[in-house]
Each structure stands twice: as C-alpha cells, then as structure tokens.
Amino acid sequence: MPKFRGVKRWATILSALFLSSILLAACDQNTPSILNPKGPVAAKEAGLFWFILVVATIVFVVVEGMLIYSIVRFRERPNSPAPRQIHGNNTIEMIWTIVPSLFLFAVLIGTIYTMFNLSDISGQGRTLQITVVGHQWWWEFDYTNDGIVTADELVVPVGTVIHTTLESQNVIHSFWIPQITGKTDVVPGHSNDKLFKADTIGTYRGICTEFCGLQHAHMSFLLVVKSQSEYISWLHNQQQAAQTPTSGAALAGYKLFTGSGGCVSCHGIVGVNLNSSDLQHLTAKYGGITPVGPNLTHFATRTSIAGLVLSWNPQSCVVSTDSSGNAVIQNQSACGLYQWLHDPQGVKPGNDMQIRQLSDTEVAELVAYLEALN
Ligand code: CUA
After folding, report:
1. Which of 23, 135, 215, 237 is the most exposed place for a label (fewest CB within 10 A)?
2. CA 81 to chain centre
3. Cβ(206) to ligand 1 under 6 A?
4. How many CB atoms sit inside 10 A of residue 305's CB?
C-alpha cells in the first residue's frame, strides 16, 4: 500500500508539472496580453476582468475559509455528541440564497455597464472608417474614404477613433486585438461594427479567434499605430499608383508578374491592372478580378506576409546577378518572400496561392519587382 501511495504522489507531481508547462507555454514576450491594454476599449475590458476577479476572490476566500474552519472546529472527536440538525432552517437557507445572488448581481451590473460603455470613446480628428474583410486566411483592410486597400497590416493614427465594419466572404472568423479591443465575430452576409482607439504608438498583434479552417492559427495581422503626421505621410504614399520599373531584375519581375507568372489574375496593383478609382471598393467588388489575393500596390511597405507566417524585409532579400547574368537571391533562407514564392503550399498548406513551380531566377526577379513596390 505505501508503495502505491508513492506512485500516486509522483503521478500527481508529474501531471501538475505537465499542466503548468502547457499553461506557461502561453507566456511568450510576443504574446499580447489583455492585461496590458493600450487603448480605452481594452482598458475597460481589463477593468471588468479585475472587478470580476476581486469578487470571485472574495467568494473563494470566504467560502473556503468557512469550510476549513468547520472541518477543523467541528471534526469528530471521541465521545462527541451528535451535531445540532439544521435541515430546513429558513434563516440559513435565506442567507445562502441571497448573499450569492448579490455577488452575481454585482458581476451582472459590472458586465452590462462595461458592454454598453465600450463604444463610448472619443478621439482627435475625424473617425477613420475601415472595412475589414476576413479571407481564408488573411485580413484585408479597405480604407473606405481614403481609396486604399491593404492586407495583413492595419495602419492607423494614434488617438483616433477607428470605426471598423467587419465582413467575411467565406466562413466565420473573429477579429481580436488583445491589447486594443475584444473579439467580434466576422460573419458572411452580415456586417458587424466595432469601434476602438489606440493610445500608444507601437505595433500590436491581432488574431483570428474563431476556427476557420486548416490555417486558422496562421491568420494573424498587425495593428501599426503611427503618430498623426507619420500616418498622413504613410497614407499619401499609399494613395500613389505603383511605379513600373524600367530595367534590371525588377523589370523582368514586372513582366513575369503581368505575364507568364499569372499573378495579376489574383492580385491587384494600382497602375498595373487597377486604376485608382477601383480602390474605392473592396477587391470583392473589382470588376473582372477574382478577389483571391491581397492588393500589392505598396507591398514593400509591409513587414510581414501570409497572415504573419513569414516576416518580410527587403534588406534580407538582396537580389544580385550571378556570373551568367541571372538574378539570384543572396541568402535564400533569410528571405521569407523567397520561401513563400518558392513553395507557398509548403509554407501554408491549403492557401489559395496555387501557382506553378517557379525557378530560383524567376523568384529572384519577382522579389526584385515586389521590393520596388514601396
Ligand atoms: Cu479566420 Cu480563424
């Protein structure tokens, strides 16, 4: 019997360690926390969390305290008399019905108050209208009144109220930026509105938080919060049509992009296969273009690709020429865009980028072209 008890003790310790390792695996420094809010909406939500935690802690301490006290104080001793029977005692039953109801009522009031207050935010400047479209598996951001469309990165000015309209073309997704605002479902055939504001300049991770298929876990995005003046210059740049390269690998990449690469059948670039008035609409509404892939007009200004699966930085994708005059990427393993164009299905199985196998030279030429889209 003592031997069995030892095994049981070790089993308990090991399973506790195993469970805590799962729990602590979430504690990465890049993991956004709702307890580190950077805007008024997330701050109200965090406030509600702390309020409920305090109420729950009071209940836990009082109930467990009474339980432990009773176990010790009223434990059976030799020759102790039978305890007083309190079954059907109206006073006690009233107390243990009314007191928990009051605690639950406090939580209910706090929750309803917070829910109705979440959209009650004010900011500087006009409210920025953005339509957010959930795709499988990336996010599209249509700046409704500014005529630009971006993907994977939602760039906004600090201190400004952002009014998003959430739409989906396929399945249900859910939009969540833990440090800025809570979750709202993104439902096909239905628009949900969501208001939020970022108070601190910085970059915050956004997440899809509704299971939406094979690559649901790879459907993140970035909220990039800039100062008002930096945002204005970013916006003015985004509103320009793309430059067409005139020479070198970038020109070869442009020809591949618009020709045998077939890229333009899914991707739009203003100045190539879109004119700027097309950008008043979502890709979904572009005449004649299947809304499969992200708009790439200013692709080089982004920092990540494929729903944040790969980072993207022109400095790590230097294109040069080899001895036979072909374009090459110097360090293929450091270049996320090379990995993506070389084998998109290997990087993110099931995504819509079903392309023919490109040669390394073709990939290098496409990278050179995409790097020029700044
Ligand atoms: Cu989209 Cu999960």
Report:
1. 23
2. 63
3. no
4. 24
Q: Which atom of ligand 1 is nearest to the CA of 134?
A: 1
- Ligand 1 center–CA 221 separation, angstroms: 11
Alpha helices, DSSP H, located in the chain: 2-24, 40-73, 90-117, 228-238, 248-258, 336-342, 344-347, 360-371
Query: 292 C-alpha to center of ligand 1: Å?
Result: 16
Ligand 1 atom closest to residue 173's alpha carbon, by position in its atom list: 1
Q: How far is the CA of 175 from the centre of ligand 1 (A)?
A: 8
Q: Which atom of ligand 1 is nearest to the CA of 208?
A: 2
What is the DSSP pairing of strand 173-177 with strand 162-168? unpaired
Q: What is the spatial distance between Cα 308 and Cα 153, in angstroms, rounded to a whole number?
A: 9
Any ligand 1 atom below 6 A from CB of 197? no
pLDDT in tens, the chain (374 residues): 556 678 888 888 888 888 887 777 666 666 788 999 999 999 999 999 999 999 999 999 999 999 999 999 988 888 888 888 888 899 999 998 999 999 999 999 999 999 999 888 888 878 999 999 999 889 999 998 888 889 999 999 999 999 999 998 889 999 999 999 999 999 998 999 999 999 999 999 999 999 999 999 999 999 999 999 999 999 999 988 888 988 888 899 999 999 888 888 888 888 888 776 655 444 444 444 445 788 899 999 998 888 888 888 888 888 888 888 888 888 888 888 999 999 989 989 888 888 888 888 898 999 999 998 98
Assess whether the C-beta atom of 208 lies below 6 angstroms from ligand 1: yes
Q: Find out whether the beta carbon of 210 lies less than 6 Å from any atom of ligand 1.
A: yes
Which residue's CA is the closest to the ligand 1 atom numbered 1? 173
CB of 373 within 6 A of ligand 1: the answer is: no
Instruction: Measure Cα distances from 314 to 16, 302, 328 in Å.
Output: 46, 10, 14
